[in-house]
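Sample intake sheet
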Amino acid sequence: MQLDLYYLMAQALLEAKKAYSKGEVPIGAVLADARGHILSRAHNQPISLCDPTAHAEILAIRKACSIQGNYRLTRCLLVATIEPCIMCMGAAIHSRLSTMVFGAHDVKGGAAGSLVDLSRDDRLNHRMEIVSGVMEDECRELMRTFFQARRGKGNKPDKGEVPKWP
């Protein structure tokens, strides 16, 4: 069975829209096994959970580890709408994911090639494949719309930060 990255990204986008509706930065993630079966899904919740580590990727990894009964997720892939930050890439590396897939780059904080590339750092003991640009326009547009609303240029979510998004 070949993996359908567009289906998985569409599922991650549904999660991102849940975050948007809650006033959270709209990032979603799904974690799938090697056959493409979704083990977990999550969306950003640092504001609602009062937890700076409650990023979509971290929550999806935690759920998948719990389901698998193992802190290692070898031969699994994580699909996120936006390039993961340093914390999320660190968790992906420690969980031994084989592949990281993301939609839009995050030039200000991305740790899978934009700001830094932890997936290729020879000082670390695990490498993973990076696939970028899957449904990139849709992922970027959701972020842009969210932050424009935060700056008073659209429907305004009621909580959170107001960083710029290109």
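Comment: The two ends are 37 Å apart (CA to CA). The chain has a mean pLDDT of 92.
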